[in-house]
Write a structure and sequence with these properties.
Number of domains: 2
Largest sheet: none
Number of helices: 7
Strand content: under 5%
Distance between the termini: 39 Å
Structural class: mainly alpha
Helix content: 55-70%
Radius of gyration: 23 Å
Shape: elongated
Order of helices and strands: HHHHHHH
Length: about 160
């Protein structure tokens, strides 16, 4: 198949043209050669790599990890053992997150049980429902949302 413009590549890979440009900018995709008019010219291989990136993301791999995998592949090395190691670490991370969430759920359910019946709590200043919660919620690793954890991880890389 011949060269493809960015819109066609994006459509075939089910991503936006902005995503294609971003992946190129951060080094995930090899920069496409330009036509004499300055248009990026892609191959079917780019479509395959973009589909690969989407599948890898769906399996929980970060863009940095996907970049490592693609570099190994482009260097002619078999990345599957590296992928397996990463996937095993992801499973361990998910298991730990499940344990944290299970503890958090039990704690939150306990606090709710204490509040139950106080439909109209009378508070002045800080909400006494939260202020009176056991310190168990603040011991150890705080329960943060998935978004907060990703922001935190992103800011430490910069």
């Amino acid at each position: 198949m011949g060269e493809l413009l960015i819109g066609e590549v994006a459509k075939r890979a089910d991503v936006s043209a902005a995503t294609v440009r971003y992946y190129e900018e951060v080094g995930l995709l090899t920069p496409a050669p330009r036509s004499s008019a300055g248009y990026r010219r892609y191959t079917e291989g780019t479509v395959e790599e973009l589909r690969f990136v989407r599948k890898a993301q769906a399996l929980g791999f970060s863009l940095d990890e996907i970049g490592e995998i693609l570099k190994l592949s482009r260097a002619g090395r078999t990345p599957c053992s590296h992928v397996l190691d990463l996937a095993k670490r992801h499973v361990a991370g998910v298991d730990e997150r499940i344990r944290q969430l299970t503890r958090f759920r039990a704690h939150l359910a306990g606090e709710i049980a204490k509040w139950d019946g106080e439909r109209q709590p009378t508070c002045q200043g800080l909400c006494q429902i939260i202020a009176g919660a056991s310190d168990e919620a603040t011991d150890g690793a705080p329960m943060t949302s998935h978004i907060q954890q990703r922001r935190s991880a992103r800011s430490t890389r910069q």
